[in-house]
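Sat 14:20. Reprocessing the chain from the morning session after the first attempt stalled halfway. Input below, unchanged.
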Amino acid sequence: MGFQIREYGRAELAQAYSPNIAPMSAWKRLKTWIGRFPGLEERLRQVGYDGNQRNFTPQQVQTIVDALGEP
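Finished this time. Tokens:
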């Protein structure tokens, strides 16, 4: 079974993208990618992301996967 679109904790999703580093380092990396990918942060805000939340909704996860690809 492949990657599932569902609610993820931010560190949990980050570790899906960077499984070989510590959770906080993975989160910092994912946060950097979100900020650098053209338009991604704005698209996330349009679906309710506020930058400080601890979990990503399924819709926010889908938005990230659409931009970055599946982990």
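The chain has four helices and two strands.
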